[in-house]
Amino acid sequence: MVYFAFHLYGQRLFIMTLYVTLAELIGSRIQQGLYLPGDRLPSVRALSQEHGVSLSTVQQAYRQLEDDGLVEPRPKSGYFVPPSRQKPALPMVSRTAQRPVEVSQWDQVLELVSTPPYGDVVQLGRGIPDIEAPTLKPLLRSLSRLSRRQSLKELSYGCVEGEISLREQISRLVLDSGCRIPPEDIVVTTGCHEALSAALRAICQPGDIVAVDSPSFHGVMQALKGFGLKALELPTDPLTGINLEALEMALEQWPIKAIQLTPSCNNPLGYIMPEANKRALLELAQRYDVAIIEDDIYGELAYRYPRPRTIKSFDEDGRVLLCSSFSKTLAPGLRIGWIAPGRYLQRVLHMKYMSTGMSAQLPQLALAEFIGGGLYEPHLRRMRSQYARGRELMTGWVSQYFPAGTRVSQPQGGFMLWVEMPQGFDSQRLNRLLAPHKVQVAPGSIFSAAGKYRNCLRMNFAPKPDARQEQAVRRVGETVSALLAEQETGLEEMSVR
Length: 497
Hints:
In the C-terminal section; belongs to the class-I pyridoxal-phosphate-dependent aminotransferase family. The chain is of the alpha/beta class.
């Protein structure tokens, strides 16, 4: 029988909707290969009897799976797994410099983040979630209601650790990732960016070396640059994450102070590191006495349920600093992140005080109310479903509009797609050519300390798909094709000479 999924928020017990639970169960069976492309799925009546639920519950579950692109109905025949379509090849495993380097690429990052996110430019490159979902409206009402109260509490400084009501809710949320972290061990920050920055400054001194996955989040790259740190980029598989053998060799060769990575729903590759690899990575960190800075900002957006465990969930000696935020699951404008820094708590508090002091009270109180009222999990379910569907559509558009041989990531969560063209392609030039057409992508070079991945780009599929978005992807693909044709012509001319 389908089991209820229980989440204890505050003093209330909320029960996950039956049809969602059933849809997740069938969806996981499809993704695990228990039902193959073209297979007929169990009938509505058969599932009703098997799981002890109503016919309408099963029908709702199938409608949910249909929306996710995992099943297709056939009149008078039932529901089927869609026939498989050939997926593009995965990006190559990254090749790195295998030595610490100083970070560059600030000008390209500034160009990306300086573009207004909601102007007339189709922002395919920015890491912005869909903030137009109706499930966010209660959060807006909480913000409005709190701002109208006569109390002046929301205008005060608060405490440097953050609002206790929010930290209590975060403490309950992290149970899903396998963590047991008391509220007093959590620090609220101004976004995940501040959490990562505070973690780096708490551990490292200028000139120190930090091992990172590659490609890696451009915000971390620029934090390393700003603090005078060096990055040691590690070979990274697009499905399983960093190469642990390469990491061990690096730990033997270099005085690495910290390992920074995004192991769950990685940005930009979208992989989920296998649990065994997470345990092995932690063992390496323990053996060489190195801290781990774990960015879990996309972890709750994993398409599969339950969500993946964090490295922090295996940590017994406090060496993992777990960083996250509500910027990707809810809205970046809240500017609410958090960090569970383990043994580094006092240092992180000092770093936070030196940077922003206290974080704004009002959004913290509204968010605590939103989560405590049981509204966060339904929103997450809606977004996971939308983003999983967006991945399939975006991958299909890339296959349709980009030249043959284009390599594409297979994200297992989040809303980012990594696209790889042949060596010699210039994604920075691509962006310049797209500018008159009001389209922007994220050039791959900003995701590397040394400016690698110039032949790659990152695209966002968070918004609900529409004709304007598809036309933008088509424009990108056509421009890529034109640049590659020009590149090939140039090579032919050189060979003739």
